[in-house]
Structures are given as structure tokens and as C-alpha cells.
Amino acid sequence: MINNLTDEKIKFLEEKARDIRVSIIEMLVTAGSGHSAGPLGMADIFTALYFVVMRHDSKIPSWPGRDRLILSNGHIVPVLYATMAHAGFFPVKELLTLRKFGSRLQGHPHRDFFPMMETSSGPLGSGISQAVGMAIADRMDNGKSSSKFFYCITGDGELDEGQNWEAMMLAGKERLGNLVVIVDRNNIQIDGYTEDVMPLEPLAHKFESFGFHVEEIDGHNFEEIIESVGRAQAVFDGPSVIIARTIPGKGVSFMERDFKWHGNPPGTEIAGEPPKGDQERIALKELRSLGGQITGDHE
Amino acid sequence: MINANQKLNPKLFQKDVEQVPIRKGFGEGLLEAGEKNSDIVGLSADLTESTQMHLFRNKFPERFIEVGIAEQNMASVASGLSAMGKIPFMSSFAAFSPGRNWEQIRTTICYNNRTVVIVGSHAGFSDGADGGTHQALEDLALMRVLPRMTVISPCDAIEAKKATLASSELGGAVYIRLLREKTPVITTKDSPFKIGKAEIYYGEEKSKADVGIIATGSLVFQALKVAEALKKEKISAKVLNVATVKPLDVEALVSLAKTCGAIVTVEEHQIACGFGSAVSEVLAQNFPVPIEFIGVKNQFGQSGTPNELLEHYEIGEKHILSACKKVIGRKN
User: Fold this and answer.
1) Is A81 exposed, middle or buried (0-12, 13-18, 19+ CB in 10 A)?
2) Which residues of A touch B103 (CB under 8 A)?
3) Residues of A at the B interface (Cβ-Cβ below 8 Å)?
4) CA distance A273 to A283
5) Whole-model pTM over 0.90
6) Number of domains chain B is built from
């Protein structure tokens, strides 16, 4: 299913990812709170998952044959909401209700409000466990011939939580070929850079020693994203992890690689950053021009 | 006298009353539930035989998952299994599950609205010799505070079996509390059991009495003995067995308060935030009467036999008896 990745298709994906990033900025500005860096950094991977990789039906979100996406780091949910809206699950204009009273789009994922998501999340470290449970259940029902895949998205800082490693041990023990963990390796968490807060390296070796097939990719390169998922799917006898190196805040130059933007929306007074009144305008201008690649009157 | 409608064990007050561990009823119940419904799966955190889940594992190895000593993972894996239509039962010691994995139960099971049955064994002082770390005296509090959680504390092995079977058909999150050591068999297979329903085991439903004892778990036996002892002193008592700690049978509690005018609650658990607290929440709002609480008073446990510990922590028969007299004295 993952082939024929033409230049035209890649251009289509780049434009989708741009639209999703623009929506993320607009959502966060309207909400007045929320996380900027993670959602922007993961926009390319979510675009690849929803527009190429995953089997789903936006008109029948509960279709039993769908692949499952389990979002473990619930705080990046704006990118999930934005991607699902752009993929046709619900109206794009509803994105601006993020974090408001009565909205389906809760600040962290809550299935009571938005059942087309697979899980509620927010407290970190529980996603891989839930994905493992789902993958085991599917194998109980369909044996190893099951064609469903379970994609669990985790942050890197989130891997500080011990429960992840309990879940990885079980995934390795059960040889879950239908499980693909995607780590957002953006190197930041709230208190600083991951290697200062709690070193994770050598992360690939750690996963490998737990029985995972490991892919390390540039999380902004659509060919690498899609090909690595293809290789992970081909691993029949064990779980896979894709360690996706991403740039937090990707697409907005003043946010990129800066942990101060982990938990803040555009429009926040931060020393050394553009004046808060100008941040939204600068961010949207950069995104709409794809970092200056596109010139013209996109604003 | 014993309420004949409840068809309790006729040998209840005899010296040779049969004694069976409550956890055994769970093991047998899960096996039977598993035979009826192929969606039922079992998860264990390295305590499969201790929690009696080995009966299910031996019969249905392909529906059993050994997660190792990892209670947090077990709770969320169970949530994932439930998301795909399974009915997971996850067992460990209550001190570790829900003791260790409360947040995983809150978020991935209750908040996610999943069907998972959490089985906490060796609760209270039933794991006497192991000492205080292993004696869960806080589990009812941890579980009853969670929205969507049903909490069941069976009084004997037969009731535990019925609770297990009923939980397998209920849907939603359920916590079942089990004890390790043998305790007297109070009920029979013909005794009524329904989740959410409390039953009068001693005295008559509508009749008046001097005091109402509301008990949960194996201490229902001690409560019954106290009612029998009080009768010899010409004090009438009624005993209500509350197997479902949440949701409480409000009607039965209020009816008991109205007919007795004074209440003693009995639990093998901290008084704070526990079963008695839950009862008092109901009665304070609906029919306030004097209440005395039998339970652990803000202390941790220690090594000893269960009976030594019940005595030391003042939750045995003689303490229930004096609480009854005290609360009667508080009536206007």
C-alpha cells in the first residue's frame, strides 16, 4: 500500500502539513493556551499517517477494520485534531473551539467528548501499554495474519516514565509484529533539553535490547517517514519503533529547537522572542510561505 | 435472629463452620465466567496462583497474559484489551493493584470508560504474617473515589464467586476486594446476590431494633456473632451485609437507620475515606442518626495472625459489641 511516492504526492503532503501547521497556530492563538512545539514538530508525521499510511474511513470513524493511532503524549493533541479535520473527520472551522467550555476538542484528549479518538490521554507513559493491549487482543482474535496495525505516538521526554519500559518488555515478550511505536525525538521537555533533564541515549540501543526493530529517521522527510513505516510493517515477529528526529516548533523560526515553546502558545511574552503581539503574524507568514520557499501573496 | 429469607449457612454459629478463603471463590468464578464467555481474558502480575487466577490460566492459556511484576502496565494493557472488545480481569495483591497503579486505573480505565475488572487480593489483615506493606487498608478509599468505578467487597467465598460472575456481565470498571486466609462460609449458593443490593442477614427487614450493624467483607461474620451475643443481653440488633460498597444501596441503608435509630459500621480498612465514611455520607444526607465506626484508626499494619491483628487494631467482635452499646447510649 505504501508505494508510488511521486514528487507530486510529496508536494501534496507538504501542502497538507503546511495547512495543518497553520491550523495549529490559529487554534493555539484562539485558545490562548496550549503546547506549540510538539504539535508543529509532529505535523509531517501525522500528515503521512493520515494521508498515506493508515487505513481509516473519515466517514465511518468507528470502522472496525481501521488501523489504530494511540496518542500517548496527549499534550500534542492539537496536531491530531488538526490532521483529522483536514482529513475530513470533522469541519476545519471547529478547530477554533480548542480548549473552550463545551468543545469536543478538550485541552487533552478525552474520548467522552470526542469518541473518534482511540484513547484519552494526558498523564504520560500509558500509551504503549494500551497499544500493547490492543495489539494482543487483535492477535487473539485474528492470529498472526491480522492486517491491522497499532501506531503509538510517544514523546521522548515521556520515556522518563517507567511504565513505558514495562510495556516495552511485554511487547518484546509477546513479539507484537502489529505494533509500531513512533517516538517524537525532539530533544526537549518542559524543564529543558532531554539529555540534561534525564538522558535517554543510547535510545536506539535501549529499544533494541527490549526486542524492538529500530528505525531512525528524519521526521520531516516524507520519503523517510513512509519508507520506515513500510519496513516496520514488514517485521513480522516483533514490535518496531521509529525514532523520528523532529525539530520542535518546526516551521516557525523563533520557536524551532527552543524548549521554552514546549508548553506555551503564540502570543506569550518570552524574553528574546518577538513581541507577543507579532508572534502570530510572523508564524503564519513563515508557514504559508513554507519558510520562504514560496513567495507571493499567501498571507 | 438470622434472616431465613437469605438462606444463609445453617451451620453459621457452630464451632465447625466451614472456612474457605474468599479468593478461592474468585478463582472458581472466573473459570466459570471464562467457560461462558470467550471474550474474558485474564492478566496477572506474577501472583497467578496466590490470586487463584491459575484455574483460569490452566484452562485458557491462550486468553491469559502474564505481565510480570508490573501493575501499572497491567492496568493499561487491560484497558487496551477492553478497547478491542475483551473483558479483562486483572489480579494482584490489593496493596499493589490498586495500590501502585491508581493513576493508570483512573485515566486509562475509568476516564476512558473501559470494561475492566480489577481484583485486589490479600486485602485487610488477611495477609497477616507478611506485615504492614502487604496489608491493603486503603484500597476501598482509592477505588470508591473514582467516577464510574463499582466496588465490591464480598463477605465469603460463595459471594466472591457470585460477584465475579456478575462483574463479568456488568460492563464498566469494577473493583473486587478479596482476602487471603480462610474465613467462615456465611452464605449458600441460594443466598440472593445482586450488585448494588445490600441484604439484611440478621433481624427482619421491617422490624425495629436497638442498633443496626452495617458490615462489609468477612467481618460480616463477626457482626452476626455480635448480634447473636446482644440478643442474650436483651438488646436487639440487625445486620446489613453490604457487598457493593459503590454504588451503595441507599434504600437499605436509610431503612436500617429508620428502624434502628443508631448505626455501627464495620470494615477491615482505614476509617478515613472508607466504607463507614461512604455510609455516613448517605445517612448524613438522608436520615442522620448516631454512628460509630469500626475500622483502622489512621495506622499501618504489622505482622501477626489475622485474629491477633483484628484484636490489636480494635476491630474484632468485642469492639463491635462495645460500639453497639455506645451508639445505643447516644440515641436521644
Assistant:
1) buried
2) 123
3) 70, 110-112, 118-123, 126, 129-138, 140-141, 162-163, 166-167, 169-170, 174
4) 12
5) yes
6) 2
| B318: containing domain | 4-16+191-329
- Are B166 and B216 within one domain? no
Residue A99, Ramachandran bin (φ over 0: left; ψ between -120 and 50: alpha; else beta)? left
Where is the domain boundary, B184, B215, B245?
B184
The verdict on a CB contact (< 8 Å) between B77 and A162 is: no
**Domains of chain A, earliest start first:** 7-288 (3.40.50.970)
Distance, CA of B165 to CA of B169 (rounded, Å): 7
3-state helix, strand, coil in chain B (%, to 5): 40, 20, 40
Which ipTM value was assigned to this complex? 0.95
**Alpha helices for chain A (secondary structure H):** 7-31, 37-41, 43-48, 77-86, 127-142, 162-174, 194-197, 203-209, 222-234, 276-288
Best to test chain A binding among B71, B84, B113 (most A CBs inside 10 Å)? B84
Q: For residue A170, which phi and psi values (nearest 5 degrees)? A: -70, -40
Instruction: Report the C-alpha gap between A187 and A152 in whole angstroms.
Output: 18
CATH number at residue B226: 3.40.50.920
pLDDT tens, N- to C-terminus, chain B (332 residues): 999 999 999 999 999 999 999 999 999 999 999 999 999 999 999 999 999 999 999 999 999 999 999 999 999 999 999 999 999 999 999 999 999 999 999 999 999 999 999 999 999 999 889 999 999 999 999 999 999 999 999 999 999 999 999 999 999 999 999 999 999 999 999 999 999 999 999 999 889 999 999 999 999 999 999 999 999 999 999 999 999 999 999 999 999 999 999 999 999 999 999 999 999 999 999 999 999 999 999 999 999 999 999 999 999 999 999 999 999 999 97
User: Is B27 in the same domain as B118?
Assistant: yes
* Amino acid found at A169: M
Distance from CA of A69 to the nearest CA of B (A): 12
**Given B71, B181, B199, B268, the catalytic residue:** B71
